[in-house]
Amino acid sequence: MEVSGGGSGEDQDAGEQLQQPRKKRYHRHTARQIQELEAMFKECPHPDEKQRLQLSKDLGLEPRQVKFWFQNRRTQMKAQHERADNSVLRSENEKIRCENIAIREALKNVICPNCGGPSSEMSFEGQQQLRMENARLREELDRLSSIAAKYIGRPIQQLGPLQPIPMPSVDLAVGGYGMQNAGPSSSEIMAGHSLSEMASLQTGSVSELEKSLMVELAVNAMEELVRLAQTDEPLWVKNVNENKEVLSLEAYGKLFPRAAEPKAYHVRKEATRDSGLVIINGNALVDIFMDVNKWAEMFSTIVSKAKTLEVLSSGMPGNRHDSLQLMCAELQVLSPLVSTREIYFLRYCQHHAEGLWAVVDVSVDSLKELNININQQSSSLLRCRKFPSGCVIQDMPNGYSKVTWVEHVEPEDRAVHRMYRQLVQSGTAFGAQRWLAMLQRMCERLASLLVNNISARELGVIPSPEGRRSMMKLAQRMMSSFCANVSASTSHRWTTLSGSSEDGVRVATRKSTDPGQPNGVVLCAATSLWLPVPTHRVFDFFRDEQMRSEWDVLSSGNLVQEVAHIANGSHPGNCISLLRACNASQNNMLILQESCTDASGSLVVYAPVDVSAINMAMSGEDPSYIALLPSGFAIVPDGSENKGALLQASTSDISSGGFDISGRSNGNVGGSLITVAFQILVSNLPSAKLNLESITTVNNLICNTVQQIKTALHCADA
To answer: Where are the bilayer-spanning segments (predicted)?
Structure first.
C-alpha cells in the first residue's frame, strides 16, 4: 500500500506539471475595472485584505487578481519615480561639469590686480582656492553618483581629468543669463551661409556641453516669456491709435537687465503682445508647434521655410512637456519687395499646470557678424535675433484656448522698401498681432475641415463630406504653393523687367518636377502697388465673381458663376469657391478659388483645374497629385499711423461722404498694399530655356491687370 501510494503521488505530480502550461491564462481587465482600480490606488496604494475582497466582489475579479494588480501598479509607480530622479541627477551632474569647465576657462584670462595685465602665474591663494573648489565639486559629484547608482543598479562612470577646451559656439547672451563665449559664435561660423546651407552645417553638430547650455538658455527664456505674458503696465503700454500693446524698453531693461553689449548697425527692437481665443485645445495646439511641418503649414503666409535641426529632448512620454528642439526658419511678407528674415533658434515647451502650456522661442546666434560680413550676405536675406518670444496657452471651455502671444526680436532692417517701410517698422509685418490673427483663422479652417454635418445648400455640386474635405485639402495646397512663390525668399532669384528698380515687375523661373505641380519650366511674375482704398474693400472687389471681368484679363470680359461654395471660417470672406466661366469655349476647365481674411491682411488665390481632376477630388479621392499653378493677390494695410481712422471711416455709412462707391478714401488717410502674382507654365520640358516671348507675354499680362484694377477702383492716378 505504501509503494502504491508513493507511485500515485508521483503520477499526480507529473500530471500537474503537464497541465501547468494549460492553466496559465492572461486576463485583460475591462475599462471600468481599470478605472475603479486606479481610483482606489489614488486613495490607498496598499489596501488590506478586507478592502481587496470588497473590491474583487464589486468588479467581478478574484482577490488574488486584485492583489497582483496593486503590486504591479506600485512597481510601475516606483519605476517612474526612479526615472525622474535619475534625470534630475544627470542634469545636476552635467551642471557641475560645466561649472568646472567654466572656471578653468576663466582662469585663462586672469588679470593681475597690480599691473592690470595678464597674469602669467597664479598666486598661492588663488591655487588654494581652486583646489578647495575642485574638492567641493568632487565631493558633490561623488554624492550624486552614489545616489544615482542606487537607482540604476550599477556604478556611475566618474568624470576623467578635465582638459582645457574652447567654449562652445552657442551665444547665451540673449536674455542676459548666459556666459560670454571664448570661441567664435554660431553666427560667426555661419556668416554668409543661406538657410539651407546653415541647416546642413548644423544638423547633428550639437555637443553634450552645448546641449546642457542650451537647456539652461531655454529654461531661463521660458521664465522670461511667462513673465512677459502675465505682466501688464508698466511693462506693456497700450497704443490707442494702432490698437496694440508695445513693450516699454525702459521697464523691460529694469526687469531683465542684460550685460552691456555693442548694438549692431541697422538693428532695432520690435516687441508686441496680443491675446485672443482660438478654437483648438491646448494639447492639439502644442502638437502643431512642436511639429515643424504642421507649424510651417499652419503659418504658411509667414513661414517660407522651416526645419528642425536637432531634437535635443523629446519630452515626457505621452505629451510634449520639456520638449526642446533646435530649429531654423525663414519668415516672409507676401511681396518680393520685402526681404525675408532668417532665425536660428531653440523651441522649448512646458506644461505648467492642468490646461496651461507655454512654448518659447529664443535665438542661439549672435548679430556680431553684421558689422564684418554684411557684404557677404544676400540682399534678400536679413538676420533676425529673437529674444524670448512665443505663446502661453490656457485651455478654455468648449474646446477653445486662450492664447497670449509675445513677439520680441532685433531685426536687421537695411534697405526696407519705402512702400513697406511703415508696415515693417511699426512691427505689424512680423508682430504678435499677425501671428495670432493667422492662428485664429487657420484654427477655424481646421475645425471646419473636421465637421461632418454640412448642409446640402453649402455643398452645392460636392456630393459628400469626404468630397468636401478633399476639396479643402486641395485648396490648402494651392494656398501654400502661392505663398511659397511670392516672397523674396532665398529660393527665388527675382529679376526686374520694367519700371524703376524698386517698383517694376519681377520675374523668376523654376523647374517643376514635384507631384502636384505641372512638369516643366514655370515662370513666376509679381509686382506690388499701393492704392488709397481700404483693405476690406479691395478684398471684396477681388472675391466678387460679378466683378471678376473687371480685372481678369484672361476672362475676355465673360462672367463667371459659382457652382460650389465651402465656408471655412466665421468671416463670410473665408471660403472656397468653384467657379465656371459662362462661355462654351472653356467647358473643360473650372477655377478653384480660396479667399481668406483676418486682422493682418487678406488673400485671394485661384488656379484653373481640369474638370476630370475636380470630379476626382469631389468624389473624396486623394487630391495630392492634381496639378496646380496658382495665381492671386495678397492684400495688407499700408501701416499708416492713421489706419485706425481709415477703418472707422470705412465702416460708416457711404452717404456720409467718407468714401465714394469705389471705397476710395477722400481724405487719403491710408490704404492697401497689394501684391499681384501670376504663375505660368512656359514649357513642358524641365530642360527648356526661357525665351523673350514668354517674358513679354507675362509682363504685359501683369501690367494690364494692374491697370484694370486701378481703373475699376477709380485709382488710375495712384
So the answer is: none
pLDDT, residue 498, reads: 61
With a CB cutoff of 8 Å and minimum separation 6, the contacts of 147 are 89
Beta bridge partners of 118: 111
Q: How far is CA 66 from CA 35, 80, 325, in A?
A: 13, 21, 43
Helix 611-618 vs helix 465-484: crossing angle, to nearest 10: 130
Angle between helices 63-107 and 208-230 (to 10 degrees): 100
SS3 558: coil
pLDDT in tens, 21-42: 454 555 678 888 888 888 888 8
Q: Which helix or strand (DSSP H or E) is residue 614 part of?
A: helix 611-618
CA distances from 699 to 680, 690, 711 (A): 11, 14, 18
Smallest CA-to-CA distance from 83 within 153, 151, 155, 144 is with 151
The single residue listed with the C-alpha cell 531693461 is 253
| Cα 24 from Cα 565, distance rounded (Å) | 61
Q: Looking at the DSSP assignment, which residues form a beta bridge with residue 574? A: none
- What is the DSSP annotation of 408-471? EEEEB-TT--TTTHHHHHTTTTTSHHHHHHHHHHHHHHHHHHT-----HHHHTT--SHHHHHHH
pLDDT for the residue 683: 84
Q: Residue 105's pLDDT is what?
A: 73
Helices (H), 24-116: 31-43, 49-59, 63-107
Q: Are 480 and 297 in contact (CB under 8 A)?
A: yes
Q: Which residues contact 193 (CB under 8 A, 6 or more apart)?
A: 201
- Give the mean pLDDT of 81-96: 84
Q: In sequence order, what are the residues at sequence separation of 6 or more whose Cβ sits closer than 8 angstroms to the Cβ of residue 430?
A: 270, 302, 331, 333, 341, 407, 409, 411, 424
| Element housing 159 (H / E) | none
Burial 121-146 (b: 16+ CB within 10 A, else e): eeeeeeeeeeeeeeeebeeebeebbe
Domains of the chain listed by start with CATH number: 32-109 (1.10.10.60), 208-255+268-366+384-448 (3.30.530.20), 455-641+669-713 (3.30.530.20)
How far, CA to CA in Å, does 159 sit from each of 86, 105, 580?
17, 18, 73
**DSSP E strand stretches across 532-585:** 560-567, 575-581
Q: What interhelical angle do 31-43 and 63-107 show, nearest 10?
A: 60
The residue count for the chain: 718
Least confident of 521-530, 539-548, 643-652: 643-652
**Please, what is the angle between helix 63-107 and helix 124-152, to 10°?**
160
Q: How far is CA 322 from CA 222, 286, 308, 346, 369, in A?
A: 11, 12, 16, 12, 32
Q: Are 479 and 516 in contact (CB under 8 A)?
A: no
- Is residue 427 within 8 A of residue 333, CB to CB? The reply is no
pTM of the model: 0.69
For residue 579 the three cell numbers come to 467657379
Distance (Å, rounded) from C-alpha 291 to C-alpha 377? 29
Per-residue pLDDT tens over the stretch 331-361: 999 999 998 999 999 999 999 999 999 999 9
CA angle centred on 299, ends 364 and 356, rounded to 5°: 70
Distance set, CA 319 to CA 226, 323, 517 (Å): 20, 9, 36
